Amino acid sequence: MTLAEVVLSTMFLGLIAYGLFAGADFGAGIWDLLAGGTRRGARQRDLIEHSIAPVWEANHVWLIFVLVVLWTAFPGAFAAVVTTLYIPLTLAAFGMIARGAAFAFRKSIATLGMRRFLGAAFAMSSLATPYFLGAVVGGVASGRVPPGIAAGDVVTSWVNPTSVLGGLMAILVCAYLAAVFLCADARREGAEDLADRFRSRALGTAVLTGLAGIAGLFVLRSDAPLLFEGLTGRAAPVVVVSVVAGVGALWLLATRRYAAARYASALAVTAILAGWAVAQYPYLLVDDVTIEEAAGGRATLVAMLVALLGGAVLLIPALVYLYVLFQRSPVDRDADAPTDSPEAVVRDPSGRASTA
Amino acid sequence: MVPLDVLADAAENLYPARMQMAVSLGWHIVFACFGIALPLLTVFTEWRGHRRGDADLTGLAHTWAKAMGILFAAGAVSGTLLSFEMGILWPGLMDRYGEVFGFPFVLEGFAFFIEAIFVGVYLFGWDRLPPRVHMLSALPMVVSGMAGAFFVVAANAWMNNPTGFRLDDEGRVVDAEPWAAMFGPSTWPQVVHMLLAAYMVTGFTFASVYAVGMLRGRRDRRHRLGLLIPLTLAAVVTPVQIGVGDWIANTVADNQPAKLAAMEGLYETTAGAPLSVGGIYMDDELRYALEIPNGLSLLIHHDPDGVVLGLEEFPADERPPVNVVHLAFDVMVGLGSALLLVALWFGWVWWRRRRIPGTPWFLRAVAVSGVAAIVAMEAGWITTEVGRQPWIVYDLMRTEDAVSPAPGLYLGFYAVVIIYLLLTALTVFVLRRLARDKDTAAPQEAAAEPPDRATGEVAVR
Fold first, then answer.
1. Could you say which of B71, B243, B279, B356 has the lowest number of CB atoms within 10 Å?
2. Full domain range(s) for residue B213
3. Which of B72, B78, B95, B179 to mutate to test the interface with A (most CBs of A within 10 A)?
4. What DSSP assignment string belongs to B98-147?
């Protein structure tokens, strides 16, 4: 592995983290959209809110991380991608603003009308943002971004069969991940009925995602032959891992083993992303610019690796602390439900919520 | 693609792209200030509260923590847009120089990540963590906020004084040294100037909120403390900032003489140059200005007869727009001096009498000091950013060569204006609600009853 490939792989780890964590957050927003009327959906929306409130900002930073590593280590390819695909990227950024602001401020606002408006903004942008990001991936993977600033077509680079597939797959994967994650969250809050509801949703979206994946292969065969060749050739083992993990997750969900299902579905999604990377290798811009050609100078790459390692040493414990603190704490959804004193709960070793 | 088409589009895109960047940055920087300084203010107040068993202080700190959560959320979403815009609007800059000056943004990514994590921990853990652990969880926020400011301002300082690389015969970057690029001549003065500005903005703004409350007759202990603590922070920092201003002006004079000349509207290279306040620059001359004889030479060279370079030394197409820069500079210095007077007034009365000055005029002055500090900070950024024009990388790359030629780019500007208007309205609305009702939930807090079930008080821990 060359230095440039190491840096790119690290960036890709960030992308996978974004896909898994922020993806689940986006998916939660999609389920918020589909939760039903204000009163009927209230409990689901509560659960969604509790699941993502303390972590969504941190989850979101992974994308910024991906952007800054790209523009420092692979500046030319970065400039080519963001200028040719500036429309879906701008729309995705607007979606992130609308989503973040709406979600953040929804709970600070008491009037029902404003809350509904912000809730709708949150939910709609949860649908739109992953679509546009998936469309960007589709444009890059199908080789529609040539080198050079704004050298590609700013419309057809993201309005094309592979981009539509990428967008739809992104939405499905986000919804699927969120449903799986919310199963375990609902159980932790002692709401088995909600867990069951999200379980059937997870199973449903899993089947849909699988079908879309199979149909997608036919789309890729005609629209992105190089990617298709990679996915069915070099990346075939990774694709198999994804399928096996996906089927395993189905079985775990069916038998209500939600915690294990989380890991299996995370592995399945990771393998989809990794499959894309392996299929596209060694190109950064298919089939014009390789990773090696796009990389910046050696000093920059070394500095980057040092920073990434040093940063990870600081970051990972902090991140683990956040998740542990949050997952161990009770969430009293009903004002009349008694809670333990905060100290007692933080020390509760079982990690179970005690509000049920 | 026909090269001429590209050029035509780029020229069309330049102005809207600059305005879009100005709106996005100008909006974000206000929230960045709170992200930098508010953690310190909050945890200090929480610490005093715990030490003295003072419920007023811990209550105040809790309200500020919630405000911090709201402001941080607004800053986070606007910061995300900025990282897209760096590439979408200025691909020429990123393409050529990304490997040199992109690096501090990677470090800033980590700093921001850690700050985001601990904002979550701090707010979520308010009553869940033991006080000592909770206050410790604020430290990473304080440190990463300052570090983040360093990294971003270092990148900006690089654009003012690019270092840490060589150009080959074809103008391509070779031997990029990203660590060296972070420590150019402008980095430290700019970073310190910005950090102090962040503390001033936060201190004066928070004090002004309580000054307004006191003017409306709410003179309880909570209001007095709410005014006292932030104002003390701001009052301590302001005189230091004036000194740092002298430092940074000297750095600009040494490294970007054209910017300094524009700040002062000085056309002719002059020995014993005056300090000019106000006036209009036309036909290579500053008219109707109030002049302090030898003031500029004294400030820059600490010598009344020192020679200051004028705009005549630079080709006409390498001069920044003088009126904008000169006006912005005067606004910054004027407001900074006014804030210094407020700080001295407060400091004098506190020293002699141990109390907040009694006259309502003092409260009125504090009430407007928040807006004044924000305007001064924005004027400072306009001075340095417009003063660098026509360059995006000083002396190396023109802004018009960095802008994206993508068709339709200018539409983004209108969208950004609308989005920021909405975002501003929403943020102000939520902050006002927090001011009225202390129990308003911050974005990172988990519990708030949906309105159809909550009656009366919203249950928040």
1. B243
2. 3-269+309-436
3. B95
4. HHHHSHHHHHHHHHHHHHHHHHHHHHHTTTTS-HHHHHHTTHHHHHHHHH
Q: How far is B232 from chain A (nearest CA, A)?
A: 30
- pLDDT one-digit tens code per residue, A218-266: 999 999 888 898 889 899 999 999 999 999 999 998 888 888 888 998 9
Contact indicator for B123, B69 with CB cutoff of 8 Å: yes
Task: Kindly state the DSSP code that residue B66 receives in the 8-state scheme.
Answer: H
Count up the domains in chain B and report the number. 1
ipTM score of complex: 0.84
- pTM comes to 0.86
Residue at B461 is within a domain: no
Question: Is the residue at A271 inside a domain?
Answer: no
- The answer to whether residue A189 sits within a structural domain is no
Q: Which amino acid is at B247?
A: W
What is the span of the domain harbouring residue A169?
A: 3-178+285-347
Chain-centre distance of CA B280, in angstroms?
27
Query: What tokens appear for A187 in the block?
Result: 């159980």
Does A238 reside within a domain?
A: no
Q: How crowded is residue A65: how many other Cβ atoms within 10 Å of its Cβ?
A: 26
Residue B454 is assigned to a structural domain of this protein: no
For residue B322, give every residue at least 6 positions away whose Cβ sits within 8 Å of its Cβ, in sequence order, or none.
B262, B265, B281, B286, B311
Q: Is residue B300 part of a domain?
A: no
> Phi and psi of B306, rounded to 5°?
-60, 150
Q: Structurally, how many domains does chain A consist of?
A: 1
Nearest CA in chain A to B129: A343
Whether A193 is in a domain gets the answer no
Low-confidence ranges of chain B (pLDDT < 50): 1-8, 448-461
List C-alpha distances in Å: A351 to A323, A355, B130, B461: 12, 12, 18, 20
